[in-house]
């Protein structure tokens, strides 16, 4: 450990052994070990006792746990095979066992490639969702086999399968198998853990027969387990930690729960998180009963995997028969990751892969691990998109992916998918229906398309009934994704979906769920789920470079989904997996135990994640870094950035944004420097590279914006800004190369995704490209002399001519100053020539102050200078008073500036006052800016009220109605947000704009998102700010809303702006009602005629009762000190 920084030292906390959101069952703290059962550590050669007749996937996970003990303590556990007698009712199982056999290439784990057949014997409880935890799928074929006998020293466990031999007509070849683990028979090692599946494992069933523990709380449940220290479980064993699962994955989760508690991150391989070292591991007393997960099927979708993941695959695995080698060696890592994350469902890569064709061992391995296979929303009946153009012509017909004209061929194509999946039925969830070719809408009228997809589903159901003969087709897991235009077919055009098929609702590809179950849909036997994105290719632009996910937004959307009973499936589009480790973990933890991770849970979740991934000492600092990063990066996806968004002249916005990124980068680097060497690779991958990469992107575009402004002003420093753009452009590439060089190039290519240079087209640029930059001629002097003057709020320059002020005019006007506005305004003095000049800035009155008042700019000895203007209100004319004060700018280079007169700057000074007892927001510069959470009053009606979502949105937080299942709340009578304001300007048409999260009408057409707004006793104006359109496209303004991350700006159609009569000056009360749950208000802006452009809105206005005159800064939205701004 390096010497700790003060920041880290102050945040050091004791580590917790508990896995995420769960009760601890073990500890690595030796001070707590007195009287506890030791499971592992130096001097203890223990074993995990299993039964060879248990699921292969369970024994494999037990092997992982045995090795994890070695990683944590230095001593592996051994896997022992229970050799006890068969108990009544436990089944007639062969006896088997193992010891660890490693594959020669440890990169691939301990199993080898598929082998010829061997020569041996041939819902939930408190955490559950709305679904029935006792529902079962059709069973898979028998795949478990063993080699060995009770008399032998070892028993090897096999998973056997028959690979397909044709990709057109279903045929299979000779039996192959996955080999291992090998169990030790009759081991004399101390048994410390006994693990197995109830009703499958002889050893666990023997304990139940002997009444050593009760399985009643989890009997027949989905993915549940019990963990308990049992005294005298068998003769010769004093005590053992028993882990008993209700089914295969229940047992696996129980085993991996221990792994996580002893310090093995699910990301130990995919993100290189080191295992925590400990002297020992002890089992805690008590019993843990883990009920069924909140969401039944939880997983992710590898998608948009070119170029990054595909290039990485090409570097690390042999090619497949038709493309990149997405083989079972790769998928073994994916399946282990999913299970360690307590997930169970997987959609494989689509763009350049065919899961079952790339490697015929892929689907058998998924079944062996216990991972449920599906296929994406556009890949029906377990067949990859690329299988149709590759093999479709061999089915005859016209070769078209068109069910209406090529039905026989497509039905045969579907049948093969069902036949291929049948041996793995327990690990299969069928995607139903079909879209058009290439993930597009069917090229027919909507009415015709509905007939086609309904006919296709009927045919698919007939095929499933035939292939799974003897199984009720409604018991076969199926889902239908209502993606894009399909949602419109269902909602508005009468598309019929059989009741047993899960309705998979989709977000808008940008994390805003389009629709959720209505009351009349929640009783469907198939239930509902959500297809959610943290990566996307499509309009308005791709976003698939690095993590840009704000976890608080995910919580808000998925808690809404869970409350509305969309809890059968949660599937996450994760792009290349890396570098989205943090939002993947967060999403899947939410899916596993949704009630645990409520609206204010992100800091707690991040602290646990940081402690597991790094250490408790740095966890508080890491929480702060990730929360800030999530807000900053989600304001606008990197791919949507260009120089135009953040203002370089108004409200110090661009400079404040850069200051935030600078502080974030410094804090991130401090933690990195303080971490042990072994943690630095993981930290760079998941935290430091995203932060430094994000900072580089913002520096590129904001410096490009300054370059454009400076070129217009003919500043010599325009050239410096151009070079800064190029510097950070190169820095971006260096950060990528640094990532690719980590760990001897383990992740080379994983950041190949381009992200700079999008230009009016949604698709990725073929090469990273810097924004346009320009240069001024630095070998000559401006026609208006060696110096120039610019002011806040304007692109104009004096002396001289430009398009921003009157020809030959020599005066610029600063934005006004008053006691309730920004503490300072600024004037820039800059070089426009080859010579340097001494200058002086002199106000005409003593109460206007400037700093600095003199300087030297230009030539070899000076730089551009920002002069700050302030007012001493104790010396200003008493309120009420308005005065325009002149400020002269003179230069040693001569009285004339070229052929133009010397410049003058004017500052309007308004000395105004509010009543001493007023509490609320005060107008300045003819506008008010209000963070929504800062209400004067916040009322509740019938238990319905507003809650603040902390660290949510673009600047501070969001405010929304709770509970989310509340009925509509009429504006005027429902709960209201009230803001007292004080105005000095009489305006008959004041505009009020709400910046609202870019949510969709998820409660259906009858309850679209609306809010109400009024001043004082006005009748509320009720605004539906999201249009009704839910077909293949999106509501009007949606492209702008998701790009801006809010409704309410020009690009989304100003749908949240209303006009009000504020002719009367003085105190007013602004009232806002959220008519529907799901409306999340971030900021409110009142324009009295002085609002200037900014992306995030002006700094929050002075709050009487909170802020003090003379202490309030108000110069930028972040309230941060700015330096090196020009």
Automatic annotation (TrEMBL):
<protein>
    <submittedName>
        <fullName>Glycoside hydrolase family 115 protein</fullName>
    </submittedName>
</protein>
<dbReference type="InterPro" id="IPR031924">
    <property type="entry name" value="GH115"/>
</dbReference>
<feature type="domain" description="Gylcosyl hydrolase 115 C-terminal">
    <location>
        <begin position="920"/>
        <end position="1100"/>
    </location>
</feature>
<dbReference type="InterPro" id="IPR041437">
    <property type="entry name" value="GH115_C"/>
</dbReference>
<feature type="compositionally biased region" description="Polar residues">
    <location>
        <begin position="134"/>
        <end position="154"/>
    </location>
</feature>
<keyword id="KW-0378">Hydrolase</keyword>
<keyword id="KW-0732">Signal</keyword>
<dbReference type="InterPro" id="IPR042301">
    <property type="entry name" value="GH115_sf"/>
</dbReference>
<dbReference type="InterPro" id="IPR029018">
    <property type="entry name" value="Hex-like_dom2"/>
</dbReference>
<dbReference type="GO" id="GO:0016787">
    <property type="term" value="F:hydrolase activity"/>
</dbReference>
<feature type="compositionally biased region" description="Basic and acidic residues">
    <location>
        <begin position="95"/>
        <end position="105"/>
    </location>
</feature>
<feature type="signal peptide">
    <location>
        <begin position="1"/>
        <end position="19"/>
    </location>
</feature>
<feature type="compositionally biased region" description="Gly residues">
    <location>
        <begin position="119"/>
        <end position="128"/>
    </location>
</feature>
<dbReference type="Pfam" id="PF15979">
    <property type="entry name" value="Glyco_hydro_115"/>
</dbReference>
<feature type="region of interest" description="Disordered">
    <location>
        <begin position="95"/>
        <end position="154"/>
    </location>
</feature>
<dbReference type="Pfam" id="PF17829">
    <property type="entry name" value="GH115_C"/>
</dbReference>
């Amino acid at each position: 450990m390096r010497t700790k920084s003060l920041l880290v030292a102050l945040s050091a906390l004791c580590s917790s052994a508990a896995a995420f959101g769960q009760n601890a069952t073990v500890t690595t703290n030796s001070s707590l070990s007195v009287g506890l059962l030791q499971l592992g550590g130096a001097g203890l050669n223990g074993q995990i006792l299993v039964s060879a007749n248990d699921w292969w996937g369970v024994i494999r996970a037990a092997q992982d746990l045995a090795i994890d003990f070695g990683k944590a303590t230095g001593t592996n556990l051994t896997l022992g095979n229970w050799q006890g007698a068969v108990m009544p009712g436990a089944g007639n199982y062969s006896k088997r066992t193992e010891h660890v056999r490693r594959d020669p290439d440890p990169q691939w784990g301990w199993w080898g490639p598929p082998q010829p057949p061997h020569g041996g014997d041939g819902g939930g409880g408190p955490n559950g969702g709305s679904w029935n935890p006792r529902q079962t799928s059709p069973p898979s074929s028998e795949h478990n086999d063993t080699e060995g006998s009770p008399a032998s020293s070892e028993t090897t466990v096999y998973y056997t399968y028959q690979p397909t031999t044709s990709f057109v007509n279903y045929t299979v070849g000779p039996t192959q198998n996955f080999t291992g683990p090998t169990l030790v028979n009759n081991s004399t090692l101390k048994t410390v853990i006994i693990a197995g599946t109830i009703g499958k494992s002889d050893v666990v069933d023997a304990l139940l027969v002997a009444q050593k523990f009760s399985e009643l709380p989890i009997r027949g449940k989905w993915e549940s387990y019990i963990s308990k220290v049992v005294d005298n479980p068998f003769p010769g064993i004093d005590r053992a930690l028993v882990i008993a699962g209700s089914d295969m994955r229940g047992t696996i989760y129980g085993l991996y729960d221990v792994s996580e508690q002893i310090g093995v991150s699910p990301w130990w391989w995919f993100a290189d998180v080191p295992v925590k070292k400990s002297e020992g591991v002890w089992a805690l007393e008590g019993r843990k009963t883990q009920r069924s997960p909140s969401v039944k099927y939880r997983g992710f979708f590898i998608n948009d995997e070119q170029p990054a993941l595909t290039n990485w695959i090409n570097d690390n695995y042999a090619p497949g028969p038709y493309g990149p080698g997405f083989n079972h060696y790769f998928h073994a890592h994916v399946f282990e990751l999913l299970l360690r994350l307590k997930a169970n469902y997987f959609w494989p890569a689509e763009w350049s892969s065919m899961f079952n064709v790339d490697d015929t061992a892929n689907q058998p391995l998924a079944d062996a691990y216990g991972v449920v296979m599906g296929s994406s929303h556009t890949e029906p009946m377990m067949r990859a998109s690329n299988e149709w153009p590759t093999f479709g012509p061999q089915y005859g017909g016209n070769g078209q992916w068109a069910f209406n004209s090529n039905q026989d061929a497509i039905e045969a194509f579907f049948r093969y998918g069902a036949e291929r999946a049948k041996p793995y039925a327990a690990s299969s969830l069928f995607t139903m229906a079909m879209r058009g070719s290439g993930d597009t809408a069917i090229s027919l009228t909507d009415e015709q398309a509905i007939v086609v997809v309904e006919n296709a589903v009927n045919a698919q159901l007939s095929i499933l009934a035939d292939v799974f003969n003897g199984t009720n087709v409604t018991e076969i897991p199926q889902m239908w994704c209502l993606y894009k235009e399909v949602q419109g077919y269902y909602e508005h055009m009468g598309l019929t979906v059989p009741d047993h098929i899960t309705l998979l609702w989709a977000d808008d590809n940008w994390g805003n769920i389009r629709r959720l179950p209505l009351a009349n849909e929640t009783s469907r036997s198939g239930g509902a789920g959500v297809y959610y994105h943290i990566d996307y290719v499509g309009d308005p632009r791709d976003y698939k470079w690095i993590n840009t996910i704000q976890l608080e937004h995910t919580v808000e959307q998925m808690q809404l989904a869970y409350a509305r009973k969309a809890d059968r499936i949660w599937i996450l589009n994760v792009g290349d997996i890396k570098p989205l480790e943090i939002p993947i973990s967060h999403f899947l933890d939410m899916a596993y135990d949704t009630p645990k991770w409520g609206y204010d849970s992100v800091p707690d979740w991040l602290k646990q994640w940081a402690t597991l991934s790094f250490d408790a000492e740095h966890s508080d600092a890491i929480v702060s870094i990730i929360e800030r990063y999530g807000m900053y990066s989600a304001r606008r996806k990197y791919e949507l950035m260009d120089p135009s968004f953040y203002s370089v002249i108004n409200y110090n916005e661009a400079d404040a944004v850069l200051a935030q990124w600078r502080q974030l980068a410094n804090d991130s680097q401090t933690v990195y420097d303080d971490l042990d060497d072994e943690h630095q690779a993981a930290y760079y991958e998941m935290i430091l590279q995203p932060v430094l990469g994000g900072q580089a992107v913002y520096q590129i575009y904001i410096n490009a914006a300054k370059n454009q402004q400076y070129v217009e002003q003919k500043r010599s420093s325009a050239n410096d800004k151009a070079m800064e753009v190029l510097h950070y452009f190169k820095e971006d590439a260096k950060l990528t190369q640094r990532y690719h060089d980590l760990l001897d190039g383990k992740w080379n290519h994983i950041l190949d995704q381009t992200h700079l240079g999008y230009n009016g087209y949604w698709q990725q640029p073929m090469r990273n490209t810097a924004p346009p930059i320009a240069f001024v001629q630095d070998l000559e002097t401006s026609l208006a002399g060696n110096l120039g003057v610019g002011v806040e709020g304007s692109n104009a320059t004096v002396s001289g001519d430009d398009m921003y002020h009157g020809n030959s005019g020599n005066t610029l006007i600063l934005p006004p100053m008053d006691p309730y506005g920004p503490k300072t305004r600024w004037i820039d003095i800059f070089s426009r020539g080859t010579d340097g000049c001494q200058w002086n800035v002199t106000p005409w009155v003593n109460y206007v102050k400037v700093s600095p008042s003199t300087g030297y700019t230009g030539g070899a000895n000076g730089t551009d200078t920002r002069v700050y203007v302030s007012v001493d209100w104790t010396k200003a004319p008493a309120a009420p008073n308005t005065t325009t004060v002149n400020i002269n700018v003179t230069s040693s280079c001569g009285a004339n500036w070229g052929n133009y007169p010397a410049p003058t700057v004017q500052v309007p000074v308004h000395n105004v006052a509010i009543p001493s007892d007023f509490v609320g927001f005060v107008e300045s510069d003819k506008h008010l800016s209000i963070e929504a959470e800062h209400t004067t009053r916040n009322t509740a009606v019938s238990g319905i009220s507003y809650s603040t979502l902390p660290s949510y949105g673009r600047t501070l937080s969001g405010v929304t109605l709770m509970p989310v299942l509340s009925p509509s709340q009429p504006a005027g009578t429902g709960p209201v947000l009230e803001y007292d304001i004080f105005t000095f300007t009489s305006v008959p048409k004041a505009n009020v704009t709400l910046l609202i999260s870019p949510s969709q009408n998820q409660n259906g057409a009858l309850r679209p998102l609306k809010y109400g707004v009024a001043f004082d006793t006005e009748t509320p104006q009720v605004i539906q700010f999201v249009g009704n359109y839910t077909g293949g496209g999106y509501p009007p303004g949606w492209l702008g809303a998701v790009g801006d991350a809010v409704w309410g700006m020009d690009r989304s159609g100003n749908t949240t702006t209303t006009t009000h009569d504020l002719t009367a000056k003085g105190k007013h009360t602004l009232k806002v009602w959220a008519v529907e749950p799901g409306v999340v208000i971030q900021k409110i802006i009142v324009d009295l005629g002085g609002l200037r452009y900014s992306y995030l809105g002006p700094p929050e206005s002075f709050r009487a009762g909170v802020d003090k005159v003379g202490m309030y800064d108000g110069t930028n939205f972040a309230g941060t000190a700015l330096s090196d701004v020009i």
